[in-house]
């Protein structure tokens, strides 16, 4: 089969798809994946044929709590969708795609409408009931500005498609919806019917080039700190971590991210390793505790390696993830507005000394293992395509 995959170019959206890409590629399907340069190596490593568009998100500084920040975000979505539609147009001239898989974020439904082929959506985070999603944002939350209106006119003229509203860029759906978690971990899972297929997360070996040495972590207690890849102004928080854990009996690894200004981070003690990039799966495999913003990707990976969590949610799905971890007893939640060295130290000591956190994480991990993984997704998709072809 020829499969087209379209995604939002962020770690937490691309990484969850690696397992399903590998499963399709391993059985001989051609998986054409439209993404950015940042993800090319790891996607090719699991067998995808990669097609690149420019990475507008990576260069942007976005404050989601301001009208101008939301406008910037929507403009990036629209321009990126135009780039993806152009690549799709060129690919479709030589390749007949059997179906398209796309993320809830991004250009997915636009590509489906342009190609008129069966569609599968995938959700990298928890599902949110439609009512709750609309109540939180509302279809009129984002009104396109003049630049966005011009881009939308261009989209209609060149590709004959338009989004239903601006919220579509954050809530694409398909005839089948793959969810990279378990029904046990998903809040209010009874609200989601059989068209939602919970396959759990998967973690195929990533082929990436990095110069991070894991040897320094072996035979030590390891505290891993990662606030994701998209937060700005993280330097004060990292300085608080340095104050809190300068006497930590073990190694402290901080994944600072590529946006961090290292000149604003104080000189750390010798037990610290601070790096723009950290091979997260490898480090989690050696970690005893993680401090995280609560992004679904990092949380799933920590659970996979049975690492107890201190969660400091900021925005997007993070408060929802933190709430669910707290409900299940698998994480300790701190408010981002009340962070100091004392609070951080107490939280880390709590999850390290209280075995109930690890027991709760093991329950979630067990539910992941029972989901069926990418193989279950392929089985469901094959059945759906067969029925679609038969006109059912």
TrEMBL record:
Q: Name all Erythromycin biosynthesis protein CIII-like C-terminal domain ranges.
A: 241-367
**CDD domains per the record?**
GT1_Gtf-like
Which residues are the signal sequence here? none
Ordered alphabetically, the record's keywords are:
Glycosyltransferase, Transferase
Q: Which SUPFAM superfamilies match?
A: UDP-Glycosyltransferase/glycogen phosphorylase
Under the GO molecular function aspect, what terms does this record hold?
A: hexosyltransferase activity; UDP-glycosyltransferase activity
On the tree of life, the source organism's domain of life is Bacteria
Q: Which family does it belong to?
A: Belongs to the UDP-glycosyltransferase family.
> Do you know which NCBIfam families this protein is assigned to?
MGT (TIGR01426)
Which PANTHER family does UniProt cross-reference here? EG:EG0003.4 PROTEIN-RELATED, FI06409P-RELATED
Name used for this protein in its record: UDP-glucosyltransferase
Origin species: Paenibacillus durus
Q: What is the lineage of its organism?
A: Bacteria, Bacillati, Bacillota, Bacilli, Bacillales
